[in-house]
Prior knowledge:
The protein is built from 13 helices and twelve strands. It has helices at 2-6, 20-28, 49-62, 72-84, 107-123, 135-143, 194-206, 228-237, 250-254, 270-277, 308-320, 323-339, 342-350, and strands spanning 11-15, 31-35, 66-70, 89-94, 129-132, 152-155, 181-185, 212-216, 241-244, 258-261, 282-285, 300-303. It has a six-stranded parallel sheet, sandwiched between helices. A four-stranded parallel sheet has the order 3-4-5-6.
Amino acid sequence: xxxxxxxxxxxxxxxxxxxxxxxxxxxxxxxxxxxxPLRRAGLNPVRDLGSCWALWRTLRRLRPDLIxxxxxxxxxxxxxxxxxxxxxxxxAMITGRGYSFLxxxxxxxxxxxxxxxxxxxxxxxxxxxxxxxxxxxxTFFLEQRMIRRSTSTRRIWGxxxxxxxxxxxxxxxxxxxxxxxxxxxxxxxxxxxxxxxAEAARILRDEGHAAQFRLVGPTDPSPNAVQPDVIADWAAxxxxxYVGPVDDVRxxxxxxxxxxxPSYSEGLPRSVxxxxxxxxxxxxxxxxxxxxxxxxxxxxLLVPVRDSAALAGAMRQFxxxxxxxxxxxxxxxxxxxxxxxxxxxxxxxxx
Length: 351
């Protein structure tokens, strides 16, 4: 947002709820903030008609030259509503497939997938361009006919990472009295791989390893959430150290040795980029988006999705060969600088 303002644009953010700290930050950057209430959970266009009407009225009043919408609901509602409101240039950014498109036995997930596919097919007809955080998602949307082949698309490297804000942090010493620490940062939903992280921790603890497994992130209202009592049981048994949500993840990353994200699918995971910018190696999955971050065996390790044993094996490799933490951490930092610098990502988005 600061970069777009610096390019000479007048910018307004539309958010789903009033947040005084967010409004103050935006205004300090010269960005206006408008509220259009929108429920995050659930995908029911009939129930969200009121939000669409409020969005149309806001856009008619603001009369923007261009709109950029991201995440599922703002995209599927924002593109056609912006067209109806007379916004001449309309862009969507796909930051990941989300809950609806992950494989699972739940009837609710199958219904959500069908509805999301139909909504994307309709709404993205109104988009002048679509940005994707990874190539897998662009291919998937084309194959599922959610975007036309004539629609302009571009793959960008996620949201990028501010390498000044997220600077390298010294790696803490590893010794018998200071065991290796694995850190997972993310919302507490099953699709992030939280259950696999806890199970891998249990496997390694049962083997007698003294490693520490720290979990940072907020609970979530979605049907895919890991319930608080489950997390409390993990913490009570000593399997994991649950920190809860934090405003600034940098101290947690600085205190860790290896970042872990066993996610089932991502656009391009920000927590991984934050760890790499701090000079931490990463263990993540072969899932779309995740596998784009790591060079296997160079800046981290890749494991199959939903495979707690493989995840434990990757962690075990760092426990048994702690010298790899520093080696791969250096490589991760260089990769973050070369590929994920926010300045180059902003230039791609602006173009």
